[in-house]
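Hi R.,

Here's the chain you asked about this morning:
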Amino acid sequence: MPEHVSSDATKRLLTDSLKKLMLQKPLSKISIREITDGCGLNRQTFYYHFEDIYDQVRWMYQQEALVLLLRLLGEAGAVRPADASAHPFADVDAWASAYVGYAYQNGIAQGAGPTAFRGGDAATPAQCVTFVLRALGYESGADFAWDSPWTLSDRIGLTLGRYGAEAGKTADRGGMVLLCRAALDCPMADGSGTLRQHLQARGVLQEESDFIEFQ
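And here is the predicted structure, written out as tokens:
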């Protein structure tokens, strides 16, 4: 495997190798050598991209960020296998297809083009903020600009000025969890109350511990 492939592509190769190993043994039993051998790369390449295996686990693709969002917001239970055919994208992994289809139907995900979702690209803070804003009912292009969603998210108390400076960085699972937790007390776009009240009315969220369980 060439060592000159792009940074995100290399991270995907390493992470796909890790996922395969995690089907066979616990994370604590997996070595970096096994990860690199599984994708034809070397230890030097691994440490160029990740500090250790736990740093690698925190890194996520766009489609993983979307699935995590649906789980944290209690929407994952509404996803059905048939939703896999509800989106026009040709580049979504099979395991995530139903989630992407559900998000597409509900205006949470729009993709990068008519048939491209680019779910295998690294998720950025701006994309994660955009996912959450759409889940709150706000529309990109109408309520906020897709390339600067923090203008709205700062105003409604979602990001509080933390994300604008991180526009070019890669998001991680911990940041997505904190973002979704902050979203609980943000107003829905239709003025019907906060996300917390919306989830409580649906019986999805009763206590703060229920939110933690979604993780």
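One quick note: DSSP finds eleven helices and no strands in the chain.

Cheers,
M.
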